[in-house]
Amino acid sequence: MNAGNAGTKVVLVHGGFVDGSGWQAVYDQLRLDGRRVSVVQNPTLSLAGDVAATRWVLDAQEGPTVLVGHSYGGAVITEAGTHDNVAALVYITAFVPDRGESVNTLLADPPPGAPVPPILPPRDGFLLLDKDKFPAAFAGDLPIDQAAFMADSQIPWGVEALNGAITEPAWRSRPSWYLIATDDQMIPPPAQRAMSERAGSTVVESAGSHSIYLSQPEAVTALIRQAANAVAA
Question: Which parts of the chain span the membrane according to its record (predicted)?
């Protein structure tokens, strides 16, 4: 238990194709600290809409807040994290765009030999992952039944969300931490290392899939606590 730092709030932001319920194990562990934890439910229709949803939750926080983003949620917290209540950013195997960049621009320049995420062609302005390839690409270290459920319960991801460009990256004015998942088949680890280095993040690495927030909530929680401790200090 780490109740001494319970005053620092945490806001959790999910990525594409999933919703905020995936944060429950991380939420439960942080709540053991006596900490206030909030989960943003991004519509994932546009970056602007997701930033607005995140800022709406941030408005309700009283005091310093650690803003956490997984995957596409990294783009959301990069744009929303200039909010006055945000004291630190935590990226969980996430995109970290710079000014003028979007998720699409980062996806367009993968490292040599990087796996290609099994994103299906857009339909009516939305994207999904190939259900048969979802487990290996997104959730390789989860039980197959859980991965199959995630594949069948995907939330369509709006193309406009991927195209949304960053105006003022919060990591330029806030300290940041980054968890690299070394077995990620969605965002290649070399790309994660390059983005986190550019942002000047404090980095830890852990063997895990893109769903490391589900498979290893202890590792994710430990990094969030590290950021919260730094804020409290």
Answer: none
